[in-house]
Amino acid sequence: MTDGRPGVVVRALTPDDVPALVAMEVELFGAGAWSAAMLAEEVVGPGRWYVGAQDTASGALVGYAGLWFDGFDVQVMTIGTARDRQGQGVGRLLLGALLDRARTLGAAVALLEVRVDNDPALHLYESVGFERFGLRRGYYQPENADAWTMRLELRRHEGEAR
Ligand SMILES: CC(C)(COP(=O)(O)OP(=O)(O)OC[C@H]1O[C@@H](n2cnc3c(N)ncnc32)[C@H](O)[C@@H]1OP(=O)(O)O)[C@@H](O)C(=O)NCCC(=O)NCCS
């Protein structure tokens, strides 16, 4: 789908990818990891669009991301890069793919939640224009960690009103 500079291609995810997604979820999110059943539902769920970053050399999945389009706005459902491939541009590539898709869908706004102490993700989101607009206390369980809610106006530069 996309020839990425960090040695990956971005492609659509399928149910066959769920085992690899589970492994990355556990590595990245620990106790908060989505289960195989949740991931299997998400990948094919209504309004969902999930992509993975596949290493061009090994064929292994090294990142994944997904959105939900409700007909008006998109919600970034998740994004993750395998630990040994972080800091190489994979996350930026995946987020860019989600936002391109959101614009193609005609979404007005992209929304997401992020743990208040997740500096890498906050930097990534803010670097593409997301702004914090609220705080959800105890959003992440079982850790009971707070989340920032963030939004990005996708039509701002086109001068369109919602
Ligand atoms: C957030 C995450 C997806 C970023 O993926 P990545 O592939 O490492 O990101 P990239 O290499 O594309 O870096 C993109 C930007 O993220 C930020 N970033 C990445 N690693 C960072 C770090 N350790 N500290 C601070 N900022 C960092 C930088 O702004 C970077 O921009 P730059 O290219 O100008 O340096 C990755 O850290 C991750 O998987 N974290 C665990 C899962 C997670 O928390 N997901 C988000 C849930 S809301």
From TrEMBL:
NCBIfam families: rimI. Keywords: Acyltransferase, Transferase. SUPFAM superfamilies: Acyl-CoA N-acyltransferases (Nat). InterPro entries: AcTrfase_RimI/Ard1, Acyl_CoA_acyltransferase, Bact_Acetyltransf, GNAT_dom. One of its GO terms (molecular function) is N-acetyltransferase activity. It comes from the Bacteria. The keyword Acyltransferase applies. Residues 8-155 form the N-acetyltransferase domain. It comes from Cellulomonas fimi (strain ATCC 484 / DSM 20113 / JCM 1341 / CCUG 24087 / LMG 16345 / NBRC 15513 / NCIMB 8980 / NCTC 7547 / NRS-133). This is Ribosomal-protein-alanine acetyltransferase. PANTHER family: AMINOALKYLPHOSPHONATE N-ACETYLTRANSFERASE-RELATED-RELATED (PTHR43877).
